[in-house]
Amino acid sequence: MVTKILFFLLLLAMSACAAQTPPTPTAIPTPTPVTANADWTPVERDFDGVTMVQVPAGCFMMGNEDGRRDERPVTEICFDAPYWIDKTEVTNQQYGAQGNFAGDNRPRENLTWMEARDFCVKRGARLPTEAEWEYAVRGPDNLLYPWGNELVDDNLVFDRNSNNETADVGSKPAGVSWVGALDMAGNVWEWVSSLYERYPYSADDGREDMESTEQRVYRGGVGSYIDFGASSAIRFRTSPDKRDWFIGFRCARSA
Fold this sequence. Notes:
Elements: H1 2-20, E1 44-47, E2 50-55, E3 58-62, E4 75-79, E5 83-86, H2 92-95, H3 113-122, H4 130-138, E6 189-195, E7 216-219, E8 236-238, E9 247-249, E10 252-254
Parallel strand pairs: 6-9
Antiparallel strand pairs: 1-2, 2-5, 3-4, 5-10, 6-7, 7-8
């Protein structure tokens, strides 16, 4: 009888030890970077009613040696993890108020950088960095425009065909980028999170300080008045408290 009791107590002790042993952690697989735009099939997902597209891990060459001085030097930028970016620019309807150009599906413009930043945060998102924005346009193929390396007027809404107005988002489907994002060339410029600093780009050099009141970058050209005026690499800057009829935004979020 004593032997049976001792055996039973031993089993209980062994069970207790097993229950307290932490499970072996499962390694999270590292995303496989894409090396060519054609290797990626666009992935969409709705976040609280807003469609975003995934941008996979990978590398690209940021900048344009043939562009303006502030687009040089060209630097390789790599993303170790995927992220999400809005499929379209944020619309008047999504924002909850009209900009200068009325219409539910027109891009919301005429707002400050701070207002764009705060709207994205309320959505559980953020403004994309300059590098994130440009990679979502160009991909590993380093395209000058979302569709290729030649300007095609019919692929975007800009000063040659817009009658100085915006259009409904997604009205130029042939201008889609490799990840499935629309209007990344034309329609409105877009605020990004980054402060305007010289290249090479580095996310760790202070240019992603969200509290600074220095000038911020906007992207996504709507003008052809200079060479590559609507290219993926062109960058302009202005005060974060300035409003402009042709500056809107889209949001991003980490995957």
